[in-house]
Write a structure and sequence with these properties.
By secondary structure, this protein is mainly alpha-helical. The chain is built from five helices and two strands; from the N terminus they run E-E-H-H-H-H-H. It has one domain. Helix 1 crosses helix 2, helix 2 runs antiparallel to helix 3 and helix 3 packs antiparallel against helix 5. The protein is elongated, with a radius of gyration of 19 Å.
């Protein structure tokens, strides 16, 4: 009778049902960005993705990006009414394009490392 070397479960001639992820790494990585920091934080605690470096990188990058977007949005809001009305649509469009490109690159299993945020996410992953 074979035993899984990672969790100790008995194997019935195939991969371990406990250790085998429910979805592929690229799908889990793309899901990290879906609801920005929320799904990224969830995937940091769900097994087996909590130990997967690739998924953890995307989760941390999504969380940090969400925090930066909130800070920048608050800064634009305090800049003044006319400046905020001018910059808000441009900022939202840039955020949308960045969000879609991060999801697409994670889906294709490419690692898009953002400046300043990406190295911090790599360090925590």
């Amino acid at each position: 009778m074979a035993v899984c070397p990672q969790c100790g479960a008995t194997l019935n001639g195939g991969p371990c049902p406990r250790c085998q992820p429910a979805m592929a790494d690229n799908i889990a990585s793309a899901l990290c960005y879906l609801m920005l920091g929320v799904t990224g934080a969830l995937l940091l605690f769900i097994e087996p993705y909590s130990h997967n470096r690739r998924v953890r990188f995307h989760a941390f990058q999504a969380i940090l990006l969400n925090l930066v977007m909130i800070v920048l949005w608050a800064g634009i809001s305090f800049a003044g009414r006319h400046v905020a009305m001018l910059l808000s649509p441009l900022f939202m469009l840039a955020c949308l394009v960045l969000w879609l490109s991060l999801i697409w690159n994670a889906w294709l299993d490419h690692r898009m490392v953002l400046p300043l945020i990406g190295p911090m996410a790599e360090k925590h992953a």
